[in-house]
Design brief:
With about 130 residues, the protein is mainly alpha-helical. The protein has helices at about 5-20, 25-35, 40-50, 65-90, 95-105, 110-125, and strands at about 55, 65.
Length: about 130
């Protein structure tokens, strides 16, 4: 299987989020969520399908595979933890924290993620 790039992880995270919110995912939903064109979504979905992360017929709903869900959830957990660190601990504005977390989530190691989550758990909920 080829290396999944940052943009691919963003697509998987978006698909998972949309599926959880709406119960179904269409290309136009992904385009609107990510602020990209529908042709860009179709190109990305073709690549993600070839990699086994999604299933998409020529027309119809996008279905995320179990492997795709696993990968998307890993990215989402990192995103939430990083956003919380940036806002709750460092006092970064929510908008900036969201943008920065999206950049960092792709490069942070599993070990660092685990330590970050443990640290945030020690702090408790604010």
């Amino acid at each position: 299987m080829n290396q999944l790039h940052k943009s691919g992880e963003d697509y998987l995270e978006a698909i998972l989020f949309i599926e959880e919110q709406k119960g179904r995912v269409k290309s136009v939903d992904i385009a609107n969520f990510l602020g990209v064109s529908k042709p860009s979504v179709n190109k990305a979905l073709t690549i993600l399908q070839e990699m086994g992360y999604v299933s998409k017929p020529s027309y119809g709903e996008v279905t995320i595979t179990e492997e795709g869900k696993r990968r998307a959830k890993t990215v989402a957990v990192k995103h939430v933890a990083l956003t919380r660190l940036l806002t709750d601990v460092l006092g970064v504005s929510v908008d900036t924290a969201e943008k920065d977390a999206c950049k960092i989530e792709h490069d942070i190691s599993e070990e660092t993620t685990e330590k970050l989550i443990a640290y945030l758990d020690m702090l408790g909920d604010k």
